[in-house]
Amino acid sequence: MATWDMVAVSIEDVQPNNDPGTQRLMASSGDATDASKMREARPTIGIPASLLEVAERRYPAHGTGARNVDSVWDHAGGMPFIIPAMGEKLDIQATVDSIDGLLLTGGRANVEPHHYGGPPFPDDEPIDPARDGVVLPLVRACIEQEVPIFGICRGIQEMNVALGGSLHYRVHLLPGKDDHRMPRHPDVTMEEVFKLRHNIALTDGGLFAELTGKSKLMVNSLHGQGIDRLADDFVLEAITEDGVIEGIRLANDPTFTVGVQWHAEYEPENHELSRKLFEAFGDAARVRYKARIAQLAGQ
Known about the structure:
Elements: E1 6-7, H1 20-29, H2 35-40, E2 44-48, E3 50-54, E4 59-65, H3 66-76, E5 79-83, H4 92-98, E6 101-104, H5 129-144, E7 149-152, H6 154-162, E8 167-168, H7 190-193, E9 198-202, H8 207-212, E10 216-219, E11 226-227, E12 234-240, E13 245-250, E14 257-260, H9 272-297
Parallel strand pairs: 2-5, 2-6, 6-7, 7-14
Antiparallel strand pairs: 1-4, 3-4, 8-11, 9-10, 9-12, 12-13, 13-14
Helix pairs in contact: 3-9, 4-5, 5-6
């Protein structure tokens, strides 16, 4: 997994006070100073944090990539809200009650294999049990309560494991599989890391094909692990030429429950499918938001 552009973010960092769209909405309502109308402008999108070690590994921090926050704001039209990696201490139901969508992001650590019956990791493999302890039950609760989910890179793997699927530890070591990991030479640039690297075939009649009108397209590739056995509740949306699953969707989905293996948060404005997936995710979150607000108003 990739940890490029990783930062620790709090909700205060992403208040919509200066957003032109929010200001227009409030001005049209006739009360641009009403803070409650500010908050109503955007659905709340929860982004589970990774537990990071910053300041030369001397300071633990709950963080996510800045591009995740930006893509939620710019392309899903949501208010990003960082969910701390607190493991079992986090109240899952209270979290679900507070959000309108869940964005699962990439991260350096992989989902630990005991969650899907896989062989143990090597001793030097990065792990994040606090994030595992938050995300896996959170995915199940969100699906049960029809909260939209968009999983990216590690996120698609978390979705699959949460519903009973399994993962390959190292895709490039499997017979007939390409190396899907990012380049790591000393002078590597962001453009090299996130460049479009291979084609994916879109399922005929699926959501991805419907959004783009295409049967295949190019994506970036930054992952070592990949889906092995797809959980029964998911259907295939996209696959690589070497047979690696790149996109999934919840079967008979009443909202938006989608995962992709590529990093859709990287410049979605320049990638049609990534942009349209963020937009569809935001649309589903707004439906959830309106229903949630209406329920609160009726109490």
